[in-house]
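Human: We require from you a protein record containing the residue sequence and its fold in token form, and nothing else.

Assistant:
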Amino acid sequence: MDYRTRLRHVREDRDYTQAEIGAVLQKSQQGYNHIETGRAELKIEDLIRLCRFYGLSADYLIGLTDKKQELLK
């Protein structure tokens, strides 16, 4: 699965708006929308923030695995 699609599915499954996730990444709603739609690339710093925010592994968020692994705390 494309990582953009995975990010959208995770966000929607958890009932977050693009504006809310944009705020987590210190971006506007439009800035985050550009990541989900392919107009901008996901920066590694943003991936790390999303992993921590969602509590999910990077492998899952970027689509390398379909196994939903939660981060160890």
About this structure: The chain is about 60% helix and 0% strand. The CA atoms of residues 34 and 40 lie 5 Å apart.
